[in-house]
Amino acid sequence: MRALHLTKENLPHFESRIDRITSPAQRRWGRMDPAAVFAHLTRALMMSLGKLEMPDQSNIFTRTVVKWIAFETPLPWMRGLKAPASFFEADPAGLEMERVRLKAAMAEFVKELEEKPTRVVNSPIFGPMTLSYWAKVNGRHLEHHLQQYGV
């Protein structure tokens, strides 16, 4: 299955799948409960909007080869890769609060994409990318975690 980009047209599709995640028991792999997954996805979206700055750790290999493998091929993503611990800290208010935040971040990204598709935001691993390319990255990232929960 080819991952959808996070765009205005695809936003309802992603939102409806997010709404179907209710329990850690749904998870097919990994340790993150749904609230942590939602927090993780929200932080990644904030990073793609330039609202969460991370140190640039990219290099020629990650900006070319790794980026190409991750986003231009149909190869499934590896499971168990680690992001910074802060990317998984869920709000003590729990699942529903994180779900609301994730959907708000998705809507914010889509709005910004519609207004400024060529705006460039730096990725700490993949280097500078336009919001149009971030739409592909965010869609693939969402798809990976939605599959983690079987939705």
**Largest sheet data:** 2 strands, antiparallel
User: Beta-strand percentage?
Assistant: 5-15%
Sum up the overall morphology in one term: globular
Radius of gyration: 15 Å
Q: Strand pairing plus helix content: what structural class?
A: mainly alpha
Termini separation comes to: 13 Å
Strand order of the largest sheet: 1-2
**Mean pLDDT figure:** 89
Low-confidence stretches: none
Task: Name the features.
151 residues, mainly alpha, two-stranded antiparallel sheet, 2 strands, 50% helix
Brief rundown of the structure:
The protein is mostly helical. Helix content is 50%, strand content 5%.
Question: Would you give an account of this structure?
Answer:
The radius of gyration is 15 Å and the shape is globular. It has a domain at 1-20 and 96-151. The model has no long low-confidence stretch (mean pLDDT 89). The protein has helices at 11-19, 34-48, 60-72, 95-115, 131-148; strands spanning 120-123, 127-130. The protein is mostly helical and 151 residues long. Strand 1 (120-123) and strand 2 form a beta hairpin. The relative contact order is 0.25. It has 5 helices and 2 strands, in the order H-H-H-H-E-E-H.
Write the layout of secondary structure elements.
Elements lengths: L10 H9 L14 H15 L11 H13 L22 H21 L4 E4 L3 E4 H18 L3
Antiparallel strand pairs: 1-2
Helix pairs in contact: 1-4, 2-4, 2-5
